[in-house]
Amino acid sequence: MEKEWRRSMPLLSMNIVMQLTGLTARQIRYYEEHELVQPARTEGKQRMFSLDDIDILLEIKDMLATGVNIAGVKQIFEMKNSPAAKNDTKQVITDAQLRAIVKEEMQLAQRHQRASLRQGDLSRFFR
């Protein structure tokens, strides 16, 4: 908890962020306009960035370098920050559970005299 608090503490000025990220002030302000990053402000209205903000800016820079446009970046961040994504915990199943699921699907397909969708995929392993 304390580590998260420290990472979100706004300590870095625009000048330092520019040096750390290799972005220009205009680029950083542009990402702020598009609400991709929300730096804190001092009483004098100076932007102050946290380590989390730096991570976001570097992530944006990497996405843009791979060919994702700004609309795509916004969509990725929206999906990442959605409540469904935060509550989505992956369920791990064992090999035995997986085999039982596949076996049940194949038996059900045989009862209905149809080929299972997975049967075609798995046929290459059982010759």
TrEMBL record:
Xref: InterPro entries: DNA-bd_dom_put_sf, MerR-type_HTH_dom, MerR_fam
Keywords for the protein's UniProt record, in alphabetical order: DNA-binding, Repressor, Transcription, Transcription regulation
Record's protein name: MerR family transcriptional regulator
Gene Ontology terms for molecular function: DNA binding; DNA-binding transcription factor activity
Stored Pfam families: MerR_1
PANTHER family the record matches: HTH-TYPE TRANSCRIPTIONAL REGULATOR TNRA, REDOX-CYCLING DRUG-SENSING TRANSCRIPTIONAL ACTIVATOR SOXR
Residue ranges constituting the HTH merR-type domain according to the UniProt record: 11-79
